[in-house]
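task queued by scheduler; priority normal; single chain, no ligands, no partner chains; default sampling; output format set to structure tokens
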Amino acid sequence: MKEKNNTEISALISLLDEPDMFVFERIREKILHHGPDAVPLLEEAWDNSFNRLIQNRIEEIVHMIQFRSMFSGLNEWKESGGRDIMEGMIMITKYQYPDLNTDEILKKVDIIGKDIWLEINENLTALEKIKVINHIVFEVHRFRGNKTNFDNPGNYFINDLLSTRKGSPVSLGILYMYLAQKAGIPVYGVDLPQHFILAYTDLITDEVISLPNEEEVLFYINPFNRGAVFTRREIDLFLKQLNLKSKSSYYLPCSNLVIIKRMIQNLRFAFKKSGNNEKAAELMELEKIF
């Protein structure tokens, strides 16, 4: 069956120099129907072609296949409850880096997680546990907020974050939250306007069932500022500076779905600011999943 499909795909690829746009659209749709199975053959055809028209058409088709595949995967993640925040972040990264090696990323993150695990014990207070995470993340592994190039789209991709050690509030927040929860520490995201922070709560919970309420929040953490700890009062002052009315959602832990949507929105804004309106438009389509 696969051999038959490959024969059909190869036959369609051989027609990519079709000058009639109506006919070409039909050829393209037939290739797209084969989905990811067509990508290796398309890439091989690109390598063997010296026709720029064919190469451009192949690049467009490959991108459309990969975007549709990512859209479908992200939608499935959302429908299943979005339990694994790192899985969601990796999917967003695959928008820019479709050939991303997921296992390699998880191994790198796991190294940081093991460093935290070795230092954490149950006798530590909540603040002492956060001090350990801050030491490992910001001093040992030298992560920091990218304050000099805040709107760089690369701030939102997990592979870029791990290689440059620089990120946005939301990407650093996701990494910090993921590492904390893996160590059994109840840290969750808070969808604060124009910033993204974390809340340390009284208990760790399955967010698909319920998230901690306001009474269970002990304090807040700012990963973009090397894990600085602060209280509700600082959020009040921040909202006052923005001339925003207080809402419970600005203080309460939010779901992983809200966090990934926030990440897509921020990434869309970053691409738009850099002048890449095509990517900004595609990310708007991803937002519709949520």
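post-processing summary
- The mean pLDDT is 93.
- DSSP finds twelve helices and six strands in the chain.
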